[in-house]
Amino acid sequence: MTSPASSSEVKYLIESSEGNTFDVSGAALRQSNTFNAMFLNIGADGPIPFTDYNEATLKKVFEYCEHSVNEENYSGPKHQDDLSKWDLNFFNEMDQKMFIDVINASNFLDIERLTSYCCERIARMLRGKNTQEMIKVITLPTAEELEAKQKVEEKKAAAAKKVAEKAAETAEKTETLEELPVQQLVQTTRNKLTRKYLSFSNE
Amino acid sequence: MQFLRFPILVQKEILGNLKLEDLVVLSSCSKRTNYSIQATEKPRLRKIKTIRYGLSDSESIDICAFSDTFSGVEMYIGIEYDAWERLDLTPMEVFGISRVDTWRPNTFSEKEEFDTVRRTFIIEGIHNCLLDLFGSSVNYEIRSYDRQLPPSLTNIKNSYIGSFAVTDAEKLEACFRNSPNQENIVLNGMGPLKLCQNSVINQTEYLMISCFETCGDDILGSFEGKSLNLISVHLQQASITKLLNDWKSDLGFRNLKFLSIRHSFNENWNIVKIMEDSGVRRLVDYSVLKWKERTMPTVLRGHNEWKERRIVTRKYVDRDSDGERAFVHISPREFYFVVGSSAEITNGGHWFNW
After folding, report:
1. Over the stretch B19-68, which tens digit does the pLDDT of each residue have?
2. What is the DSSP letter of B174?
3. Chain B: residue nearest A79 by CA?
4. Cα separations (Å) of A176 from A164, A180, A187, A190?
5. Is B17 in contact with A120 (Cβ distance < 8 A)?
């Protein structure tokens, strides 16, 4: 919708998974390496589709980008204690689901600073914890979930095996066809030799 | 949050923010977390060259990891005894619950006996977890300064057992059952020590025994490794004569490269008799022999596993079968035997007056 001008006032339209569109400034969007690689030089004709993520998540991600536009250049992850009040509020007001969606979106958009802060925040949740506490934080799949997953995998394997068997059968048939001329050749040679032998013995 | 559902780059970034201690606990949570750590943190895991289990009278287990690139401790996990008594916990749960990530001085307990079966169960569990994460190529080491002998673990390459208790040969043998061919074993101060017949300890590459009043004759006679260091042992001079004669005639000690014995018996050895009975000869010039002896690395020594040893001598014996020369140094209470091809030899001239 806009030309890829370098001015920070240029706005880009972003399309979410719901099909909704909203504005994001060029300066904020340029913090995304994915955007830089895909659209910065060629420009975007119409809304930029980031349709794997919902509007709330994308708005949250770009809210962070808009805020950090004027910050100094990123120089590695900061310790959580060094985060500003705004940063802390930004993270604290998210529920866990939103937090996870933001990490995934930030990772996809390759926004280094936000991804690093989010990962540091998760690492902080795990640090110094014992086994049981860690299992709670990272929500490992339960035994039932693992069983269900195994069943799905078994079904997939069975289906794959069937396909492979069919393919092998087809290949076998093809091989038989290919072998025919050779067999014919052998038979012809054998006949010739027999005839020659007979003529020789007659002599 | 389902950690394992995060993209691999995010998992890598999270794990990169964790200390090794946390990674070890996390790896024990499930096989998949273990795989994730191994896949993303390979360089950090590969840096670890030594993992040391320290067992002491404080009834705690100290686990330290060292690398070649950093002189300090890369990972320290201390496990308190209190948590062991909770029988409802698996080894890794105990590990997680009671771990202390910062080193603290040992608080010696007055407890004479404790549940060694439970301790073995805990250490085995933790060791298996570390083996799963760091692999078997790491140099796993046991250092025990305990009244109880350490448990027998697999893949142990170095053992140091220091104890002032009198040690039963069978029990000592059991400590090495699961890791029979160790590189380096040090048995220190365990009272009069006796090894089992055909003990696996005899096959250790580098063996050092420093146990007062121990009879060294049997230990020397059965040793099959490369380097033997006997300190404060009783040793008959006939054993030295037999060693030299057997080596010369290729009847034994084929692998032996270095031997040093410090004799603690009241009676001194008769040097002339040993030399006569074993055909030890003298060179005109003295030779300086330098070789590297295996030691237990310490932080203070920069984790150096080797210590330089040196003797100056002109006494030698030659092996009949291949002409290999071994240099010997005999004094009334000390004996050194160094195979020439395994040491660095320089000419010491003829002015040494030893």
Report:
1. 999 999 899 888 889 999 999 999 999 999 999 999 876 667 888 998 87
2. H
3. B17
4. 18, 6, 16, 20
5. yes
Query: B207 in helix, strand or coil?
Result: strand
Task: Of B46, B40, B122, give the one whose Cα is nearest residue B83.
Answer: B122
pLDDT tens column, B88-112: 777 766 665 556 555 444 444 444 4
| Residue B1 to chain A, least CA–CA distance (Å) | 5
H-helix segments, chain B? 8-16, 20-27, 31-40, 42-46, 91-98, 116-134, 169-175, 216-222, 237-248, 271-278
pLDDT in tens, B249-282: 999 899 999 999 998 877 888 999 999 999 999 9
Burial of A73 (0-12, 13-18, 19+ CB in 10 A): exposed
**Residue B94, both tokens:** 């105990």
Could you read off the pLDDT of B228-256 as tens digits, one per residue? Answer: 999 988 889 999 999 999 999 999 899 99
Distance CA A173, CA B146 (A): 73
Nearest CB to A107; choose among B10, B18, B32? B10
Q: Which residues contact B294 (CB under 8 A, 6 or more apart)?
A: B183, B184, B205, B206, B208, B227, B305, B306, B307
Q: d(Cα B77, Cα B96) in Å, to the nearest integer?
A: 10
Residues of chain A that touch chain B, judged by Cβ-Cβ distance less than 8 Å: 77, 96, 99-100, 103-104, 107-108, 115-116, 118-120, 122-124, 126-135, 137-141
- Judge: A139–B3 Cβ closer than 8 Å, yes or no: yes
Cβ–Cβ below 8 Å for A129 and B101: no
B83 three-state secondary structure: helix
How far, in Å, CA of A153 to CA of B309, rounded?
62
Across the interface, whether the CB atoms of B4 and A123 are under 8 A apart is answered no
